[in-house]
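User: Sequence recovery, please. Input:
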């Protein structure tokens, strides 16, 4: 059965009429891609082509498993310098005299390895340095606040325990520490400044020991010799007392880490017993 020529003519007129009625919205007329869209059919073809490109790797970009040589060639094509050397610009607001040379050296190595060109590397460097400075300023503020709090705590504790003699026992504690603590442990003293209660306790120990030493010296100098018993006995007790005073004030009695500490303390207790019995 032959198709009616009149029907063919009617369909052709409908298609032509449909194409003539196709228009692109005003909001898209100025787009470059819209110039090629002349009909609904063109629109669907363009959309289909766009969908087929989604997910495809752009031409020239190496795959994830590409060799280092392939990536280096790509980086070079994208403008990465042959050597890790960039002309970095320092961001505004840097402290006066702030040396950025070490930052630039490290950044150049890292950003070159990442394949960045000069413009990209400079942008990353500036933002990185800004973050570093912001972090340093925050840490500095926190450190200053913490230090102020520690100093306030130390001042309160020392005033409570030493009154106007704070400087005296602070200096004595430093001298004792320097004298009796091994050199390898000297740095420990600097850490004590972050522990006001521990430092104050050491000062209190120094004060106690110094008071004991002052008492011994005062007692010995005032006595001269013990008056109880005969002259020979008096001289013997005086020798005992003299030896006792010498041992109590000796470094080995004041340093519990000394190898002679235990032996010295035993001898001190023995002499103390003799002295106590002589007074009865």
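Assistant: Recovered sequence (280 residues):
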């Amino acid at each position: 059965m032959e198709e009616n020529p009149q029907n063919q003519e009617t369909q052709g007129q409908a298609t032509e009429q449909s194409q003539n009625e196709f228009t692109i919205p005003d909001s898209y007329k100025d787009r470059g891609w819209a110039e090629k869209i002349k009909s609904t059919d063109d629109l669907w073809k363009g959309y289909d082509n766009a969908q087929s490109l989604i997910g495809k790797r752009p031409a020239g970009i190496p795959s994830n498993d590409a060799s280092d040589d392939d990536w280096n060639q790509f980086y070079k094509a994208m403008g990465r310098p042959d050597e890790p050397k960039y002309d970095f610009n320092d961001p505004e607001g840097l402290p006066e005299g702030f040396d950025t040379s070490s930052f630039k050296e490290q950044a150049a190595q890292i950003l070159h390895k990442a394949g960045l060109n000069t413009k990209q590397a400079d942008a990353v460097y500036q933002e990185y340095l800004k973050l570093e400075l912001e972090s340093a300023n925050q840490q500095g503020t926190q450190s200053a606040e913490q230090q102020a709090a520690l100093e306030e705590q130390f001042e309160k504790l020392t005033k409570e325990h030493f009154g106007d003699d704070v400087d005296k026992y602070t200096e004595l504690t430093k001298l004792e520490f320097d004298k009796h603590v091994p050199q390898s442990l000297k740095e420990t003293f600097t850490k004590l400044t972050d522990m006001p209660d521990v430092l104050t306790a050491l000062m209190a120990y120094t004060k106690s020991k110094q008071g004991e030493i002052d008492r011994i010296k005062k007692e010995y100098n005032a006595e001269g010799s013990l008056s109880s018993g005969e002259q020979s006995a008096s001289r013997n007790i005086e020798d005992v007392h003299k030896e006792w005073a010498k041992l109590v004030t000796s470094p080995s009695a004041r340093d519990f880490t000394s190898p002679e500490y235990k032996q010295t303390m035993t001898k001190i207790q023995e002499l103390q017993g003799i002295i106590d019995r002589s007074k009865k």
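Residues 109 and 226 are 82 Å apart (CA to CA).
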